[in-house]
Design a protein that fits this description.
Oligomer: single chain
Helix content: 40-55%
């Protein structure tokens, strides 16, 4: 069977207008997919140069002439959706480690307009370093080096400024990236003229991406290739739902010509906070509060959770009864309580999508930081509105604490374990910067001794360095979490879950 290439699938060649930091499936399945759609409709006619920073291997792209397929599978408005799109928007993939000079040469391209990124949640953090390394280590330093080369090559021209759109799932990601770049400019003494050009002619946009994108299983990949008639080692599976909200003004709208009336999934607005809060609380917050419980039940994917009678009931009740009522709304059509409720029901349908293997362990990455960012404000808002503890959130928090029970450390890696329903023990990695913290704290707990469990819960919940708040100040919450954790330890996960949703 032939591999997908430009020889087997000829496609147009467009000028390079976008630089993209990151090669992950989210970028391939959302921004790059949308740019491909715009190219197909003649609305953008530009290509993307991708920078890979993780290693110097780019052959997975070059072997296919940078082509890949996005396979959309799922249900939308009650209708089965099956759509395959060959994405040809990527022109080149450059390895930062070995091709940094080629990356800097691109800064001199007068047609370049846009920079997109998706690194990690911590990838936008400021790291004090020289931008004149080949390459700089952190993403903000790489970006600063690129922007400085752009500034020098265009003589500080305001017409050659750029629009920068980070898509990392971080609140105010554009502002955070701008702050890091400005600090690096100061540390590297890049001068007042560059700082002025950066301030007035480089637009950093806060943005939000919302689409579940996964790699296919080997079985799904083979089935697809047999049907399509070609091999695709970059095959990307995704759901019908997609949204890209970008904070911007008329200049941004003009530059992002791939957005328009035919792409309502791309929202450009001067305030996108409603969309950020809605997704962060309803979708991401639910994931974070339910993932530990699902994994402790022996489930592997989000779809598995939704097929489990008790677990699916827990997910629905938690989302609709405790999270949705706390999401701020603007009381205008499309941004009101009805829009939040509709989004929640759409999310439940997305969770049920059997075509996506959204692994629970992947969701568990940096679980503690996610719990703080996604759920602490929701918890506080619930108390403000209802003046009582949210029982399902408390149970989800207890399951999170149990998931974070480190049983051993090997070469700096931390592991937990669960007893499988059919017998046997499963060890799993705890990929969390706070794993060592919990390794120590869990040693103070004697299972069956409620006093030690209570003390452990109070110690964790009162730690303001974890939550940026003292959660024991919320009446009844610490007691409820401790009671649930005791139940999980003594009665088991399944029995405790059945009781809490009864």
């Amino acid at each position: 069977m032939a591999k997908l290439t430009r020889s087997t699938h000829p496609v147009p060649v467009y000028p390079e207008k976008i630089l993209q930091f990151g090669t992950g499936v989210l970028l391939r399945g959302l921004p790059d997919y949308l740019i491909q759609k715009a190219n197909s409709e003649g609305r953008f006619e530009g290509s993307i140069v991708v920078v890979k920073s993780t290693d110097s291997q780019t052959n997975e792209f070059s072997d296919q002439d940078n082509l890949y397929t996005v396979a959309v599978r799922g249900v939308q408005q009650g209708q089965e959706v099956v759509e395959n799109t060959i994405v040809s928007a990527i022109s080149r993939v450059l390895a930062a480690q070995t091709q940094w000079n080629d990356v800097l040469v691109l800064a001199r391209n007068p047609k370049l307009q846009i920079i997109i990124s998706n690194t990690t949640e911590i990838g936008l953090n400021y790291v004090e370093e020289s931008i004149f390394q080949h390459p700089p280590q952190s993403f903000p330093a790489k970006l600063t080096a690129f922007l400085y080369e752009r500034f020098r090559s265009v003589g500080g021209s305001k017409a050659k400024g750029l629009v920068v759109i980070p898509t990392e799932l971080v609140t105010d990601n554009g502002l955070k990236l701008r702050e890091a770049v400005e600090k690096l400019a100061q540390f590297n003494e890049l001068g007042k003229l560059f700082t002025k050009w950066l301030k007035f002619h480089v637009r950093f946009c806060n943005s939000l991406v919302d689409r579940i994108v996964t790699r296919p299983t080997e079985e799904d990949k083979l089935a697809f290739e047999n049907e399509a008639g070609y091999e695709d080692d970059l095959l990307t599976f995704t759901e019908p739902y997609h949204l890209w909200a970008i904070e911007g003004d008329d200049r941004v709208r003009q530059t992002l010509s791939f957005a328009g009336p035919s792409t309502p999934q791309i929202i450009i607005d001067e305030d996108i906070n409603f969309y950020k809060e809605r997704k962060l609380r309803v979708l991401n917050g639910t994931h974070t509060l339910t993932m530990p419980l699902g994994y402790l039940l022996g489930l592997e994917t989000v779809a598995d959770e939704m097929r489990h009678p008790a677990m699916s009931k827990f997910v629905e009740q938690l989302m609709l009864n405790e999270i949705v009522p706390t999401v701020p709304d603007y009381d205008i059509p499309g941004m009101d309580k009805a829009a939040v409720a509709q989004f929640a029901h759409d999310v439940l349908d997305r969770f049920r999508n059997p075509h996506l293997d959204h692994l629970l362990l992947n969701i568990s990455l940096q679980q503690t930081a996610k719990m703080q960012a996604r759920n602490v404000a929701t918890l506080q808002r619930y108390y403000e509105q209802f003046n009582t503890e949210p029982k399902l959130m408390a149970f989800g928090f207890a399951a999170y604490l149990l998931f974070m029970k480190v049983v051993r450390e090997e070469n700096g890696q931390f592991f937990g374990e669960i007893s499988l329903p059919g017998g046997g023990i499963l060890n799993y990695p705890i990929r969390d910067d706070k794993a060592g913290y919990f390794y120590g704290d869990w040693k103070t707990v004697n299972e069956g001794d409620t006093a030690t469990v209570d003390a452990f819960v109070k110690s964790v919940l009162s730690d303001t360095t974890l939550w940026q708040a003292d959660l024991t100040a919320l009446p009844g919450f610490s007691e409820n979490v401790a009671e649930n954790l005791n139940a999980l330890l003594t009665d088991g996960v399944e029995k405790s879950l059945e009781k809490v949703i009864a």
